[in-house]
UniProtKB/TrEMBL annotation:
It comes from Fusibacter bizertensis. Signal peptide: none annotated. PROSITE patterns: ACT (PS51671), CBS (PS51371). The keyword Lipid metabolism does not apply. This is CBS domain-containing protein. InterPro entries: ACT-like_dom_sf, ACT_dom, AHAS_small-like_ACT, CBS_dom, CBS_dom_sf, Diverse_CBS-Domain. Residues 138-208 form the ACT domain. Keywords: CBS domain. The keyword Transcription does not apply. It comes from the Bacteria.
């Protein structure tokens, strides 16, 4: 899946201009319950601004006149150390960017560097949860022969009216033992677990 499928389009976003005052920026951020907002100039993403960054800059400046300070333009507080991505980026790569950079959002731009929208942590984690079936029941099976047992596991689940939504392989790092984590759907998951155990599979964990 690509970023374009989960991004929030620019037309649905509140954005700031570099010429907006810091006071107006704070008001817009507070009125909409945001932590930060993208800053766009002539349809080009130029950075983002958070209320915290404005106040941090004020306290570090030694200025005592907050009202006058907040009349400064957004351009003076701009944080632009943010790499934009394209709509064709894989969502797995977007997840890696969030993990490494701890960003609140990632800007998305087109071929001409025009601002197209953003990807937020919530939208990314929401779709990953859906893709990997994290709300589905989970069965964990221990094995030393992943390739040899996977087909048999799938057949047993299918024959008992189950449907696999996700499979993950984890190395336990103990004597070559691997853990197969399976998310699945079905009317009677307990019956599926029983049938797997009857087939000799070592069910380590079953989470309904």
């Amino acid at each position: 899946m690509r970023v374009r499928a989960i991004m929030t389009p620019a037309k649905e976003l509140k954005v700031l201009q570099p010429t907006d005052s810091a006071k107006d920026a704070i008001q817009l951020i507070e009125d909409n319950g945001f932590l930060s907002l993208p800053v766009v100039e002539n349809k080009i993403f130029v950075g983002f601004l958070s209320k915290q960054f404005i106040y941090d800059t004020f306290f570090k400046s030694g200025n005592n006149d907050i009202q006058t300070f907040l009349e400064k333009p957004v351009g003076e507080f701009l944080f632009n150390k943010v790499d934009a991505v394209t709509p064709d980026l894989l969502i797995e790569e977007a997840a890696d960017i969030f993990f490494k950079n701890k960003r609140r959002f990632i800007p998305v731009v087109g071929d001409q560097n025009e601002f197209l929208g953003i990807v937020t942590q919530n939208s990314l984690f929401g779709i990953l949860t859906k893709i990997y079936g994290l709300h589905d029941p989970k069965i964990s099976i221990l094995t030393d022969d992943f390739k040899g047992v996977l087909t048999k596991i799938a057949e047993t689940i299918s024959k008992n009216d189950g449907n696999i939504t996700n499979i993950a392989l984890l190395d336990t790092e103990v004597m070559g033992i691997q853990e197969i984590s399976i998310r699945l759907e079905g009317k009677d998951i307990d019956r599926i677990v029983k049938k797997l155990e009857e087939k000799g599979f070592k069910v380590r964990e079953f989470v309904k």
